[in-house]
């Protein structure tokens, strides 16, 4: 049972911090009238991509969304060509040579590169710091209200996370298709700051107000 007056407040904190992760996708494609030729070309191009992705700069790579489909005429089911594609998602934490890596990949035949998408790690210290700051803000507000009443904060009754968490990761999408010149140009990328927001609800017991 709460003994004394209670003040309820919301504490918030907002930060913009440098991103910790960058993700981009690499899509290798092939098209031919013959299905076997399509599959062979797709496998060769995917293998060439894997060779370039064997780089210490890369923290993680994941292959997904493999597609092989027939192209038919508008009328009927006659197959006139086969399309194939495979997508690899790449994650890096070192951004120093990210632009160069993406352009090297885009220089491959029938390869599309899209990204990067900037984000924070799920366990980023920035989120922890924002939560701490939100609690500090709640306590500061409670003390301001108590002071206005001639009272003091004496105890914490309840603390609840509003669950706002971090804002969705900022995204910058750039698409590159094969066909770059032999001398790959330099590409400078500017990582986008990531917004981090934390919000808590808190109830504090205060001493008896001095109302005059």
TrEMBL record:
InterPro entries assigned: 26kDa_periplasmic_antigen, SIMPL/DUF541
Domain of life of the organism encoding this protein: Bacteria
Pfam families for this protein: SIMPL
UniProt-listed GO biological process terms: DNA damage response
UniProt protein name: SIMPL domain-containing protein
Lineage: Bacteria, Bacillati, Actinomycetota, Actinomycetes, Micromonosporales
């Amino acid at each position: 049972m709460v003994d004394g007056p209670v003040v309820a407040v919301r504490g918030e904190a907002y930060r913009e911090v440098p991103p910790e992760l960058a993700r981009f996708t690499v899509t290798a494609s092939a098209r031919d009238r013959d299905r076997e030729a399509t599959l062979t070309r797709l496998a060769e191009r995917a293998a060439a991509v894997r060779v370039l992705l064997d780089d210490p700069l890369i923290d993680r790579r994941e292959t997904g969304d493999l597609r092989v489909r027939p192209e038919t005429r508008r009328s009927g089911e006659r197959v006139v060509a086969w399309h194939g594609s495979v997508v690899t998602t790449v994650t890096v934490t070192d951004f120093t040579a990210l632009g160069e890596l993406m352009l090297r990949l885009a220089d491959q035949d029938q390869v599309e590169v899209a990204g990067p998408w900037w984000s924070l790690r799920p366990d980023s210290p920035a989120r922890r710091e924002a939560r701490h700051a939100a609690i500090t803000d709640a306590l500061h507000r409670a003390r301001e209200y108590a002071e206005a009443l001639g009272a003091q904060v004496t105890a914490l009754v309840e603390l609840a996370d509003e669950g706002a968490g971090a804002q969705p990761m900022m995204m910058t999408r750039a698409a590159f298709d094969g066909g770059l010149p032999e001398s790959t140009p330099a590409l400078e990328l500017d990582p986008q700051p990531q917004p981090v927001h934390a919000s808590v609800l808190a109830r504090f017991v205060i001493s008896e107000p001095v109302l005059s």
